[in-house]
Amino acid sequence: MNSGLLAQRRFAPFFWTQALGAFNDNLFKNVLLLLLTFVAVPRYGWDTGLLNNLAAGLFILPFFLFSAWGGTLADHLDKQRLVRRLKLLELATMIAAAAAVWFELFGLLLALLFMMGTQSALFGPVKYAILPQHLAATELVKGNAWVNLGTFVSILLGTLAAGVLASLEGALGRAAIATSLVVIAVIGVVVSLRIPAAPPSVTGRVPWRPLSGTWGVLRDGLAEKKVRPALIGISFFWFLGACYLTQLPAWVKDVVHGSEGAVSFLLGAFAIGVGLGALLCSRLSAGRLELGLVPIGALVIGVSGLELAAQSSFAAERLTLVELLAMTDFWRMSTLLALVGLGGGLYSVPLYTLMQLASREERRARMIAANNILNALFMILSAVFGIVVLSVMELSLFTLFACLGWSALLVGVALLMRNPRPALRLLIFALVQMLYRLRCRGRQHVPATGPALVVCNHVSFMDALVLGGACPRPLRFMMDRPIYENPWVHWFFRIAGAIPVDSDRRDPGGVRRALEEVSRALRNGEVVMIFPEGRLTPDGDVHAFRRGLDLVLARDPVPVVPAALSGLWGSWTSNKDGKALTKWPRRLRARVLLVFGEPIPAGYSPRRTLERRVRGLKRAADQSLSRKLGGPI
């Protein structure tokens, strides 16, 4: 994933604003926990477990109380102004926290942790609702990947910085903590001033009901059929993440027999894994919403989690981080935890993107608020799950981690069985990328939602796979019935949603049934691809479009996207130098260019016009490839 978005004002100021906020959140929260554990408990004799659970509860409670109101604010206010106001709230909280750290006012610090949780709860809805206003639909996956990466790296750095600052003694340590909290908050306020305007999606007066509506928002979110899978899926990710991170100190203490440094190292491995998973997701998605990564991510979490649960305990004596780093088993454990995080990145980024794209603009922040509330519920459920497994049932950490691995594995398998097409499409895209040096242009011309027809020249038997893998939306495509019914590949075409068609000479009524299936797909809001030439080109040129295209558009007038393929003529799946598939492959990783043209509105796409458009796109694509290769194609 290149860093182009980080150089643009429409994304970079917001990215750094939210990253600095996540850093300060975790710096403050972890400094507080360390001060309570190592200063307040010995001084006042307080109960450590009670304090830690109280602190966790004070931070999560605002997500129940204020997330719904945060969604209302984000829908009714300019999101740019709302972000700035919330950053000022963070600054005021950090100034008060600096004073409380300096004078060691631990009760005030706990109250300020609640305030920081409130700021985070209000910031959550606007955090993801603002992205679709500043980024194109094809950029959302990349934007969400960067946000996830920035968040987890900030969590890691904030946690590590808290340990360093808390280790400083006396007035020097208190001054360093206080200064850091305030300086980071000030930088966040300054950076937020550069965020572009993001007008409200709902007009009217903002209702002042900060404590009401939580269950109503959650009910509305779960009632949205297209958004509900994303909300539940993301919350399951936070359930797993909370379980792993909550039990990590105990795992290090009882299994690794390491010190606090080992906790930080394994936490870093997990955070880096999530970041790498987000980057890999952006790379594999290529600007599309690639839901096929969700079950793959769950399977990676499941397999890695089960392997992690199968690790043996280390030596009984306490080991330092330096000693652990010299052990192969510790590196293996770190790698497995990083793979759990990597699977989490692959799993979560498409779901966040789905939540943004599937939400109506005027209710998007409300849906994100519902997500935050459900996340908090699942995180509390993770704590209850840990208590039941470890304390009530008195099972081991190995058993708990095995349960997490099996649950992720079962979720991945269930998603694949329920809808295998997205994962299959992803595998097709990966296969095409392995076979060809494929470049695409104009993918933004494919409508983000609603029915559409894609028409393209037909060069080779790989055309459907190339188009299906490269198109930003899943494609249904028509194909000859004899090929469709081939026993070796029938299962593949059936899963891919191919629409078989046969001539009336061989199957009376076959064309009619195929057209009815195309019509059903279009009326369901799907994208259907047609090769209007009706056969492979015998000479590499675009040939006359057949009347079947007119029949499809007469039944369902939908936008038509012309497309053209260049670079596949001469491959073993084309008719050059002999019938397709009868020659040995002679080219590996050939350059292929796929170009999508501007869509022609519904009702304005006669067959001859489309043929001219495809010819023009093909000619331009050939010329572009010819310049790259230094000669005619």
Short précis:
This is MFS transporter. With 633 residues, this protein is an alpha/beta fold.
Question: Could you walk me through the main structural features you see in this protein, from its secondary elements to its overall organization?
Answer:
The protein has 633 residues and is an alpha/beta fold. The two termini are 30 Å apart. It has a seven-stranded mixed sheet, with helices on both faces. The mean pLDDT is 87. The chain has 22 helices and seven strands. Helix 1 runs antiparallel to helix 2, helix 2 (48-76) runs parallel beside helix 4 and helix 11 (293-309) packs antiparallel against helix 15. It comes from Salinicola lusitanus. The chain crosses the membrane at residues 27-45, 51-74, 86-103, 143-166, 172-195, 229-250, 262-281, 293-310, 330-352, 373-392, 398-416. Keywords: Cell membrane, Membrane, Transmembrane, Transmembrane helix, Transport.
Question: Topology of this structure?
Answer:
Blueprint (H helix, E strand, L loop, with lengths): L11 H33 L3 H29 L2 H24 L3 H24 L1 H4 L5 H27 L3 H23 L21 H10 L4 H29 L3 H26 L7 H17 L11 H5 L2 H31 L5 H29 L4 H22 L2 H15 E6 L10 E5 L6 H8 L4 E6 H4 L5 H7 L2 E3 L8 H14 L3 E4 L17 H8 L4 E7 L23 E7 L10 H23 L4
Parallel strand pairs: 1-7, 2-5, 2-6, 3-4, 3-5
Antiparallel strand pairs: 6-7
Helix pairs in contact: 1-2, 1-4, 1-6, 1-7, 2-4, 2-8, 2-14, 3-4, 3-7, 4-14, 6-10, 6-13, 8-14, 9-10, 9-13, 9-14, 9-15, 10-13, 11-13, 11-15, 16-17
Protein name: MFS transporter
InterPro entries: MFS, MFS_trans_sf, Plipid/glycerol_acylTrfase
Membrane topology: Multi-pass membrane protein
